[in-house]
Amino acid sequence: MARVYVLYTGGTIGCVTNPEGALAPVPGAEFERLALSVPGLSGHGVQGYDGLNWTMGWFDRTLDSSNMKPADWVAIARRLLSVYDEYDGFVVLHGTDSMAYSASALSFLLPGLSKPVVFSGSQVPLSFTLSDAPANLVGAIVVAGTLPVPEVCVYFDTKLLRGNRSSKVDANRFAGFDSPNFPPLATVGSVVARNEPYWLPMPDKGVSLAEPDNRSRRLAVLDAQVAALEAFSVVMLWLYPGIRASTVSAMLTGTSPAVKGAVLLAFGEGNGPTDPDFLDALSAAVKAGVVLMDNTQVQRGAVLPGAYATGLGAVGAVGAYDMTPEASYAKLVCLLAGGLDAAAVKAAMPVPQAGELTVIEG
């Protein structure tokens, strides 16, 4: 028998129209009643999948994903760890706007996963007639209960994507998510097509969260990380023609709490302006202890360190290779919350931890 824990956090999937005509997420108990009315999910089972059962949990407050903070990532991770031994897979129902950030963060907060953690949601509320929510909800539960994928994933519109490789690519269409630089882990249709060569391997016993001691140690790490989050900030800076050095300085230095990391959304393969004042502003931030990540604004392809004379590596920015901006941001936050200094974070960022990047030589 497979048991799946479904954690409802809020988001569009759980919204109804309030008296003012705006969408607002319903409390957990009310959403569970809505979920039980979905064809195929009555009685906390799944039609056509004998022995597959699901249980729903929720937090006291629901969240629009636009209001998600890093502390909420830790809360999700802690909840999953607290029930880890009781279930075979996990579904996190989440708003779509910041789902890729949360899924990326969970991949770094929960190293040693031996079971699937599947994020899902919808573009249209479950309470609406023409909604993608029923298919996404049923599909996510089935995937979490039947596929032994030992990693954090996003399930949306029949595709199972690696969480830290996914991005929201459409605000309206049901195919709202994609993994531009990595193949789907599985595709659901009349049959479930597994892409197992691209799955992460099962963790060794020494780090596996299947071991109670490892879960206890991980909970202690999460406690320390959530306590550290208030002491620093990480920002994302989109580069554009004519960006001023004063703008960069204002964002990266002299803030409270202090900026300790910045994801630069650069041009093409990681290019930025060569204006001396602009580069001086970045250099000053690096000297002040800010870790700079050189990401691209482009969805597909990779940052190739040193490919152009206008590369940002000369001022100390770390090339992100093919990491998504969401994964870069989440990884920076998690490493900095772990108490690492700037040099250690800079060294760790271009090293794969959870399948989030491909190191490209050259």
From TrEMBL:
Residues annotated as domain L-asparaginase N-terminal: 3-191
Species of origin: Azospirillum lipoferum
Binding site for substrate: 65, 96-97
GO terms, molecular function: asparaginase activity
Name under which the protein is recorded: Asparaginase
Record domain Asparaginase/glutaminase C-terminal: where: 234-349
Pfam family, one: Asparaginase
GO biological process: amino acid metabolic process
Active site: 12, 12 (o-isoaspartyl threonine intermediate)
Family classification: Belongs to the asparaginase 1 family.
